[in-house]
Amino acid sequence: MLKSTFTPIFCALAPKPKPSTRVITNTFSNSTSTVRQNSSLKNNPTITPSSAYIHLPFCRKRCHYCDFPIVALGSASTQTHDDPRVINYIQWLCREINATKIEDELDSAKTPLKTVFFGGGTPSLVPPSMVGTVLETLKMKFGVSESAEISMEMDPGTFDYKKMEEMMLLGVNRVSLGVQAFQEKLLKSCGRAHGLEEVHEAIDIVKKCGVENWSIDLIASLPHQTSEMWEESLRLAIEARPTHVSVYDLQIEQGTKFGRLYSPGEFPLPSETQSADFYTMASRMLRDANYSHYEISSYCKSGYECRHNFTYWKYKPFYAFGLGSTSFIGGLRFSRPRKVNEYMKFVENLENGSVNSSIDDNINSKDKALDVVMLSLRTARGLDLKHFQESFGSSLVLSLVEVYKPYVESGHVVFLDEQRRAVRIDDINNSLLDETDLERRVAYMRLSDPNGFLLSNELIALAFGVIDSWKDYPSALQEAT
User: Fold this and answer.
1) Where do the domains of the chain lie, and which CATH numbers do they carry?
2) Which of 311, 362, 402, 475 has its Cα between 20 and 30 A from that of 290?
3) pTM exceeds 0.90, yes or no
4) What's the Rg (C-alpha) of the chain?
5) How far apart, in whole angstroms, are the C-alpha atoms of residue 362 and residue 364?
6) Where do the Radical SAM core domain residues begin and end (predicted)?
């Protein structure tokens, strides 16, 4: 079921709900040591990232489902230009950016950032002048492309027309609006700081300010949420005409208020069957409204996919800065502390060179294969089997095709040729007898929409089992290189 699906590379994928449709566990840690080593077999480990995630942790209050590293400023906080907590944090954040080592730092042709994502927290609480300071620091350190996608998570009730216009003048050209629900009762029950009136005001501001690229975020499977409520939220989101909609299934986390009040699968939370129905309803309604379901939790109008999130789904390197964030550079994930005081110590250590973020030459091909499968199968494009074979060899591809054959027959998995036409099960069976024929016939493997996406946990776990029992990976590695 979708309800316990994987968690993403880090929090930039996540709006406030800590959705269960995210991939790869957040590697937030109080330690500054390297989290994981899984260098690409084929990619140059020194490739410079062209994306950056910026964590702005400030919120008015902590929502009942949230376990992100945040700083709660108070329910009435909307003007933060003179708040010392915000001012101090921005200073440390910029120090971290400046202290970060990059491979092409002395190269006049260094790679500029093509995407920047301000996540949180509630980034729209931060004054535009301070956001501008961060962007200027990024430009001086890395460069920022003139055509860069610069995204910001913004919550209703935390910005007005003036602030929105100022953010746009700074270069913010994509907004992720944290609506979550269109029912006053649900907004209150999950501890949101905004109400329904502020939701409609925020949508009006985004539209009147001329933000072309914007998303509405919604949460399914909230306590006491009914099918009628969910249908209403989807309908109102569609009527608002955003270019993008993100739909997340609530995940109950230990240590949160919801974690203390509720048990997954038990009333007043919707049942697993109801959650599946919510997901199916979202897929149907949004596709009927001409939104492309391009990733498990993401829908967009043509040409409005989130470019930043494709960095994660395509397993590309990225910078991350700020409290609790996790970068992925040179095949390594590196996490920052979750607590402010420890984060400041981390930045000091980074500045004096005592943080070990060096690249390890030891390539773990199994970890790499696991990550590639997880990230690829959450997208409509799916897993590129030819590229996968180039990195890991044909024997692993053959094993994956074999294990997923029953799910092709059940309609949960689809194999596609080079023209992205479905390959019949009979052709797959015949091709398994001839490795060359398989390579010719089958180019991609993806999960079906919505049934395959709903079983993503189980289906991706099958791949884990195949990869974990992969015995000949040294020879496959030799074959790939």
Assistant:
1) 2-313 (3.80.30.20), 365-480 (no CATH)
2) 311
3) no
4) 22
5) 6
6) 44-292
